Amino acid sequence: MTSSSNHTNIVFSLNNGQQQALDGLFTQYYRALVFFAMRILKNQEEAEDIVIESFSKLWNNREKMESVQNIKGFLYLTTRNACVDHLRAERKIRDMQKELQVLADPVEQNTDMETTRAEMLRHIYEEMEKLPHQCRNVFKLSVIRGLKSRDIADELNISVSNVTSQKSRAIQLLRTALVKRMIHCIMGII
């Protein structure tokens, strides 16, 4: 059997939902993709999670694959995009943690400052409780308990990419809600 014929068989088998085609592609590309993701993320576990999720996305899009080259490109592009999204989400979480830490750490022993800080934390927690259920759970496990994405995924029985998505969504919703609150407070003073 020629290499071209073998590639055609792999694509045909994958298109028709044959698990062994995905298994063969997994065996062929998994290590290289993990190495590729590790170069971006600098974290073995997160790289492995993202690569596994990329194979899941390949399976979900298997009917669209036209060639082995198309499959390979899809896997690398999906992995790269997931790594970039993961880094962005992690950066947002770190920024939010820093913001929360600044609000929680006493800068001065000034009573007015402490009162303002306590009010701000109260607003943050109130808005956090208004987040959608899954979003709130992921956010609390990440920011309050400090769990990693893989641990949150395991605890909530969801994918790592879902954890990342929920974290990003929580941060966006909290920022929007807190900005609205600040505007209302300012408008009430004026």
Structural commentary:
By secondary structure, the chain is an all-alpha fold. The protein has 2 domains: 3-85, Rna Polymerase Sigma Factor, Chain: A (Orthogonal Bundle), CATH 1.10.1740.10; 106-189, Orthogonal Bundle (Arc Repressor Mutant, subunit A). The chain contains 8 helices and no strands. Helix 5 (111-129) crosses helix 8. The protein is elongated and about 75 Å long. The model has no long low-confidence stretch (mean pLDDT 84).
Structural class category: mainly alpha
CATH architecture of the largest domain: Orthogonal Bundle
How would you classify the quaternary structure? single chain
Fraction of residues in helix? over 70%
Set down the secondary structure blueprint.
Elements: H1 3-15, H2 19-41, H3 44-60, H4 68-104, H5 111-129, H6 133-144, H7 149-156, H8 160-189
Name its key features:
elongated; Rna Polymerase Sigma Factor, Chain: A; Arc Repressor Mutant, subunit A; mainly alpha
Provide a compact summary of the structure.
The chain has helices at residues 3-15, 19-41, 44-60, 68-104, 111-129, 133-144, 149-156, 160-189. With 190 residues, the protein is an all-alpha fold.
